[in-house]
Amino acid sequence: WSRCPSFIEVKAKTGDIPRNRRSNNTTGTLTQAADYARVIMIARPFQLYVYGLLFCGHSFVLALFDRRGVVVSKDYSIKSLEGLKNLICILVRLLWDASPEELGHDPTVSLVQNHSYCQDYAKQYPRFQFTMWSDTRSWTTFGPPIWTYPSLLGRGTSVWRTFAPDGRAMVVKMAWRTENRMSESDIYQEIARIYNSRLDELPRGMAQFYEGRDVMYLGERISVYRLREPVNPYGPPKVGDEPAPRGFSAHLRVSQDEPNAFLHRVTFADTGKPLWEYTDISQLAKVLYMVIYAHKDLCQHGIIHRDISVGNVLIRTDVSITTNATGEQTVTVTDHDPPEGFLTDFELAKIATLVKCETYLPPEVCGCSPVL
Q: What pLDDT score does 74 carry?
């Protein structure tokens, strides 16, 4: 699946074709195709969306799958000249002409030299380089992701160990945020402001925020609206050519009634590993103690996490790099001594000061349910 940026699904019956004229149409064909897209996004974690060509009998549609749902083109038949022409052009674009970015790969991310999606992930997970904002600073991942969102729909969160531009080892989280929700980076900065106003130090059991914001590309924020803009299945027009017909592409639009979502990245001056990779019960107990103490301290400052889970608690690690005589570098990750843990993912946190209250509010007043 890591080698498949798009896919084709073939069914024998024309009646299995999903039709965009019915918003509640969820045929088995579309459900199965959505699962293919989900697996591709897991195998290719920087894939922002996936194209699927769904062929049922003599009819076909093009579907675009992303973290906010699926957009389906009108259905065409290869029995008509228009449908046959569209099919040929779509196949040429999907299989030969389209660039990785046009097929849904994050344009701000590239594979490190001598790494590819075709290599054996079990032996060596591919490394990636990416930019955070509009500047040219480059961040490089090492090792497999600490966490990858397993479902198609939702925030599409992935958490990575990375080397910052200055060589420091850090953790980077990438996720889609809804436009009407406060960004996670702003939440971390608000928490720091609260602690600074009281001359208090942030708890050691909380991720150490470094920087973060929405991802920019060519001067614009990467968003669902932007990615779902109609694409020309015939490719970019050449100089002197007449405008190419839009064909089905005019149907690949996101409804403006749906809230937009932006790709957001947050960096932490910390490194860690998943909680389930603890070495012994003693380490696990000390990690949980530090996180529980941090949660208590945050509550006393009017901050409730609201999303504590096994995936949001990391065991703190140390990272070192050694270089041999040939210049080859080896990255070594060891557990921090003494054992420590830290809480991450404050995207859904509730902050009392943001609702004009200077004192701690219990969950029943804030309108949220206690998790821990």
A: 86
